[in-house]
Write a structure and sequence with these properties.
21% strand; 2 domains; five-stranded antiparallel β-sheet; globular; 6 helices; 44% helix; three-stranded antiparallel β-sheet; alpha+beta
Amino acid sequence: MGLADALALGTEKLAQLPPETVCKNSGARYEGGDYILQWFNYEKSLSTVSEPLRILWLHYLTANGTQNLSGNLIAYRDVAPALFYEPNFHKRAVKPLISCFGKNPEKLIETGEFLGGKKADLGDASVTINVLPYLPLTFVIWAGSEEFPPDGNILFDKTVKSWFSSEDVVVFASMAVYEMIGTFKKRQK
């Protein structure tokens, strides 16, 4: 299925749901025929985001996932039913996170706090951010040494499985990482 097909399918599914129900379930607002969602610490409308992000948001808006966080952090391998997809998660989300923040772990916290996150107590540097209303991500970096290169991970509240498929979790984490990287680079200018 291509982007256009996924977008059409998601739009059709959303159109079948009452806006009040969608907003109650997802934490979105409905104004002027458009859904407004919190993305990190700012709001964006569904109609103005990129197609890949719009598809992800359509999945989120129609998921009716768990609103109450479990407080239990899990790694991607605990999300995905098939471990063969984990290398893709690492390539698309974790590796870019490490490339940007591995040598500057303090910048992860600084960037995360700028985007509305809070410092966490994992690794050498970590930050938890509510990327979508009911979907926080915890970004973790371990600084490198003479013996080991920098490393990192992205952790999810266990409830992420009620919102997204394992493939969507990869897209979600990847888009969030690139938002972090873009914000970091803008702030360096």
